[in-house]
Amino acid sequence: MKHISSLLQRTLCLLSLLIFCSASYAKPHPPYLTESYCEGLVEQFVGSSMRSLNSYVNQHFNLEYRGGIRNTIHFLDQRIEWLTECNDYLEDTSESTVFYNEGLTQDIFAAIQALSRELQHVQDGVEYSDETGTNNPTPFIKQRYDELAQLVERYHTRVLLDKQFE
């Protein structure tokens, strides 16, 4: 009986230690992160952020105005930071991702980073010569934006289909 009691004590001690250690290694998340906050952030990105990017890339992009390029880089970097934070939170708490599944989420993140990187190249003075030899990065920026827009549209279509069949 004494042997069983000692074995039970050691088992309980080991389990307590495992629980304590696993809790101390859990990723801490800011208290404002909730599923509802993350859903709202994604809706805002898919809606107004993408409309704003579309307007900038297709109507207002101009090499002469470096401030707009800088602001757009900052805008994209900020959004990827916020979306990544939400994605980490959702993966840890509900085993889901911000953009439907892991593959699409990573593709959208990569497209945001590619557009930001392309704009950074323009900001840094990298020249994009067209067939006439003129520096014209606009087609490259538009291509990066279009890649992002197609991925976001794929996500948005999926959301609309899911809502239709609820």
From TrEMBL:
The signal peptide here is: 1-26
Recall the taxonomic lineage recorded for the source organism.
Answer: Bacteria, Pseudomonadati, Pseudomonadota, Gammaproteobacteria, Cellvibrionales
Name the keywords, alphabetized: Signal
Superkingdom of the source?
Answer: Bacteria
Q: What is this protein called?
A: Uncharacterized protein
